[in-house]
Design brief:
Layout (H helix, E strand, L loop, with lengths): L39 H24 L6 H30 L4 H27 L7 H29 L7
Helix pairs in contact: 1-2, 1-4, 2-3, 3-4
């Protein structure tokens, strides 16, 4: 065959046998169904409390002019928020979207919440990166306080809306 295509023939060792290897690889799997977890909402709300507590601790450092601890606390906050968002995306949103797939209004609400949270998460990551500095001069401190208040207001509003409007949609089917 190689000779027909303009290449050199392959020389095989004398006495070698050719083996055909067949591997059965499924081309697609049925989607894995996320099951209802009766403790999920409680766990997510507990995350919210921990995130708020950690965020307030960051604000307290700023209030006490203890900015040396702020970068480390911000990283801790970001890590904790990311873990919460992963749980929320994988366990909460996927379940609710699948159970309400025939409810167009709630599906749109869920997707809107998801997009909004992705945007807020990017803002938090940018906030954390911005303040990974060795030293907080007067200007940086002033900017930090303003940014901290903005991010805090967004997070507080978001948490309130999630717990009042979104989490009640998580129901067993």
């Amino acid at each position: 065959m190689r000779r027909l295509m303009g290449g050199q023939p392959v020389r095989h060792r004398p006495g070698a046998t050719h083996r055909r290897i067949e591997i059965d690889i499924p081309t697609s799997r049925p989607p894995r169904q996320i099951s209802y977890d009766p403790s999920l909402v409680e766990s997510l709300e507990k995350d919210h409390c921990e995130l708020v507590t950690l965020f307030k601790e960051i604000g307290q450092c700023a209030k006490l002019d203890e900015y040396a601890d702020v970068p480390m606390l911000l990283l801790s906050f970001k890590t904790r928020l990311e873990a919460h968002l992963i749980a929320e995306n994988v366990r909460f949103y996927n379940y609710v979207e699948s159970t309400l797939e025939h409810d167009a209004e709630n599906t749109m609400l869920i997707r809107s919440f998801r997009r909004e949270m992705n945007s807020i998460a990017r803002g938090v990551v940018d906030f954390v990166k911005k303040y990974q500095v060795a030293r907080f001069d007067v200007q940086t401190r002033n900017e930090f306080v303003a940014d901290y208040n903005t991010v805090g207001a967004l997070l507080t509003q978001r948490i309130d809306r999630e717990e009042s409007s979104l989490y009640p949609l998580y129901q067993p089917i």
